[in-house]
Amino acid sequence: METPEIDNLVKKFLQFKLTIAFAESCTAGLLASEFSKGVGSSEVLLGSVVTYHPIAKQKLLGVSQESLSLYTAESQQVTNEMVMGLHKKLPADVCVAVTGLCAEGASEADIKPVGTVFFTFLHQNHAEEIRHEFEGDCVTVREQAADFIFTHLGELLNRYSEQYAAQAVETRTKKG
Known about the structure:
The protein is α/β, with parallel strands linked by helices. It is 49% helix and 19% strand. It has helices at 3-15, 30-35, 54-61, 65-71, 76-89, 138-175, and strands at 20-24, 45-50, 94-100, 116-123, 126-133. Strands 2-1-3-4-5 form a five-stranded mixed beta sheet. Strand 1 (20-24), helix 2 (30-35) and strand 2 form a beta-alpha-beta unit. Helix 1 runs parallel beside helix 6 (138-175).
């Protein structure tokens, strides 16, 4: 995502007075690095926790050994635990967790090929799970995952805007 698009995303967060935090595995800090390029990002970005290794997922975000053993570090279940652990440590209005397979050597299988990435977006006590398969080398998969997240955040904030506008109209109607 280009810097002007990041600027627009940050402006939406500022407009609604929302904060964000990231729990990054396969993106390895790319989300925070790119998001922080946006003008005003210091007002909305609480932080990012890079938990590339399963030990970091456990120690920093409270991911259970049982989930790691049963589902693998690159799974929706682990991503869900990552976002919940993140929210406990950095209680942002929007929390995003991401993990996946950027290269061979992890938990890839026919049903989970290299390029499979898992996302969990937590906002207003609602968790949205997404699984997406990208193609390309490791760097390309990371970049595509970051772009996917930023695009999805824009969509989330558009929905938030519609909800916010509907609530404002409802409030005015009740007062009138």
